[in-house]
Design brief:
The structure holds two protein chains of two kinds. Helices cover 71% and strands 0% of the residues of chain A. By secondary structure, chain A is mainly α. Chain A is elongated, with a radius of gyration of 21 Å. Chain A starts with a helix and ends with a helix. Chain B is mainly alpha-helical. Chain B has a domain of 210 residues. In chain B, a hairpin with an 8-residue loop joins strand 1 and strand 2. In chain B, helix 3 runs antiparallel to helix 4, helix 3 crosses helix 19 and helix 16 packs parallel to helix 18. The longest helix of chain B has 32 residues. The radius of gyration of chain B is 22 Å and the shape is globular. Classes of the chains: A mainly alpha, B mainly alpha.
Chain lengths: 124, 496
């Protein structure tokens, strides 16, 4: 229990990941599924960012001469988060475009209903 | 550094550049030519590379940019990567040729250019997954191939494909989410992203007994994520609708290549990061083995129940992927060698089956129900022969590629008594099941059609003819002269 409190960022990240994952898996509403993906990805970024941060150290930006490397926080997790954000933005955009397409065809964003309508049309 | 060491980077880069240039082209036809050029250049570059490092049995790392390891990004290339990359580029090119007619019929003219961008990006992603030496780069390319793969499914604008794409997308996102969290956890306990440094720390952690549970969780998450994306049983349900409803070239590329990209990455991670001994100790291989066996049976049963020829082929892919997972699950070098060989066999056979099935249904108003295809082989003999060769290879008749793969699987199990009996029994059962749906399909295609059921005689499309002949040659090559290929794979695995 104490560990969970000390690592509160990681705990929050894991809980958020679970929420996002379940949303993606269990929601019927496609837009909510995409929101689930968003929560899931953000939780990973929270986790990464908290890993890279070291209490009491500087941002890894050089001003003037090179100081000791031990004075700065680790910049790699931040770089990974940036890359990850780009990926998740494109995935979200693609999913929303697809959902819009499905909505135009079936006038609903409920996936079960869409599957049923497609089956009725006999082309599923 | 010899100039030829730049070729892996060139082949990835040519694909990405052609994807970027494609929107500037006049129409879909030119985009198609550019994609053919990119994959052809890939075949040439990887082939030359293979000719150089294959016989010399050497491997090397290629520094991307100006930062040396452990900070920068790297590609690592050995005989195994070179063989796989050559095959990937060749299959991509032939799949485009074989499916070209359907692409221009199924995809709206204004969307055709976009379709070929996606194809270029898929090839770039597959090559990058084969060559990369950096785990986060691998994640980025996993996502690129996910989006591009979903896009080529939905390119054929029908309601069935939209629903299938949605399913595929949801499962893929679940898979990549799991892979991402696995990679992040691994980074947290090791502090590295490059494969060699990761391996060093993983071995140290194992030796000192630290972080055993996180390490197990990491392996589990990555295997699960990649397994979902490569349709490992029981996560295979998204595959048949997606591969069965897409346009021909998409089905070929998805079944033949895209699912394999993740498996190749899995094998490379097992060797270059976790090492196969650690994976065996964690008992992950046993899980993969059981899932593989189940997939072989369930996939075949699904295929038997299917009356739609393309969905039948898609279910058969689930079964064939089961073979690959079974080989990996054996957890020995020879088992994984057999899995790599099966990857090549399936990559050459399934695209041919898909493009022949589409060519056969072209004379029957694109009706892909098996009963509507009675006698269709007489209207397009080359497609009929191609389908028959593919079917016989999938069943595992001697001289065809599938037979060689099955022999390797059977001989790979000899060292492990428990797994041997399970493997041999499942192999036998799965062969019978394969025959139970492929033989009736072939018989239907070659039986004389009833009055009024005949379609028009189909002219042979030159692009289709080239692709089918090359695929047939590849099937016989892998079935008869497999020796050099196997040696390359074995040397490659030893160097990983």
């Amino acid at each position: 229990m104490e560990h969970l409190l000390i690592n509160h960022y990681e705990t929050a990240a894991v809980i958020l990941f679970g929420i996002g994952f379940l949303n993606l898996l269990l929601q019927n509403n496609l837009v909510k599924k995409v929101i689930g993906v968003g929560i899931m990805d953000s939780s990973v970024y929270l986790f990464l960012a908290s890993q890279g941060y070291i209490e009491g150290r500087l941002a890894p930006i050089l001003v003037g001469e090179v100081a000791n490397a031990a004075d700065y926080i680790n910049p790699i997790p931040a770089g990974l988060v940036l890359t990850g954000i780009v990926v998740s933005v494109s995935v979200t955009a693609f999913s929303l475009a697809l959902i819009q397409r499905l909505y135009q065809k079936y006038k609903t964003v409920n996936f079960d209903e869409i599957v049923q309508l497609a089956r009725q049309k006999g082309d599923e | 550094m010899p100039f030829v060491y730049n070729f892996p980077f060139f082949s990835i880069f040519i694909c990405m550049i052609s994807g970027i240039v494609t929107p500037l082209l006049k129409n879909g036809r030119w985009a198609y030519r550019l994609s053919l050029f990119a994959s052809g250049a890939g075949v040439l570059l990887s082939g030359v590379l293979l000719g150089r490092i294959g016989p010399a049995n050497e491997s090397f790392s290629f520094m991307m940019g100006h930062f040396p390891a452990p900070w920068g990004n790297e590609l690592s290339v050995g005989p195994l990567e070179a063989v796989l990359a050559t095959a990937v580029c060749l299959v991509m090119m032939m799949a485009l040729l074989g499916g070209s007619r359907d692409i221009f019929e199924d995809v709206l003219p204004e969307k055709q250019k976009l379709y070929f961008i996606m194809m270029d990006e898929i090839l770039a992603a597959l090559l990058a997954l084969t060559y990369t030496n950096d785990i986060f780069t691998a994640y980025v390319f996993i996502e690129i191939s996910t989006i591009a793969a979903c896009a080529i499914v939905m390119a054929k604008d029908a309601s069935a494909t939209l629903v299938a794409t949605m399913r595929y997308l949801i499962m893929s996102l679940l898979g990549s989410g799991l892979v991402l969290i696995g990679i992040v956890l691994l980074y947290c306990i090791t502090g590295h992203l490059l494969f060699p440094s990761l391996q060093q720390w993983v071995l140290e952690l194992v030796a000192t007994g630290q972080y055993t549970i996180p390490l197990t969780v990491v392996v589990g998450l990555i295997v699960l994520g990649l397994g979902i994306k490569s349709a490992m049983f029981p996560f295979h349900l998204w595959l048949p609708p997606a591969h069965g409803s897409a346009t021909t070239a998409s089905s070929s590329v998805l079944s033949g290549l895209v699912v394999k990209g993740y498996i190749i990455l899995m094998i490379r991670l097992f060797y270059k990061v976790f090492t196969i001994e650690v994976i065996r100790e964690l008992r992950v291989t046993n899980m993969i083995f059981l899932f593989g066996l189940a997939g072989m049976i369930i996939g075949s049963i699904g295929a038997m129940k299917e009356g739609h020829i393309k969905r039948m082929l898609a279910y058969s892919s689930v079964a064939q992927l089961g073979y690959v997972f079974m080989g990996i699950g054996l957890g020995t070098d020879i088992g994984i060698m057999a899995a790599c060989f099966q990857i090549l066999v399936h990559a050459c056979t399934k695209p041919m089956l898909f493009s022949c099935a589409s060519a056969l249904s072209a004379g029957r108003h694109h009706n892909k129900k098996l009963h509507a295809l009675r006698g269709a082989a007489y209207e397009n003999k080359l497609a009929g022969i191609g389908f028959t060769v593919g079917a016989l290879s999938m069943i595992g008749i001697p001289l065809f590629a599938g037979f060689a793969a099955k022999v390797f699987f059977a001989s790979a199990t000899m060292a492990q008594p428990v797994k041997m009996w399970m493997t041999l029994l499942t192999l036998a059962l799965s062969t019978v099941l394969n025959a139970l749906y492929y033989i009736p399909a072939v018989t239907v295609l070659w039986s004389r059609p009833a009055e009024g059921e005949t379609g028009e005689k189909q002219p042979v499309h030159p692009a289709f003819a080239v692709s089918t002949v090359v695929f047939i040659a590849a099937v016989f090559f892998l079935g008869i002269c497999y020796e050099p290929v196997v040696t390359l794979i074995q040397n490659g695995l030893a160097l990983l």
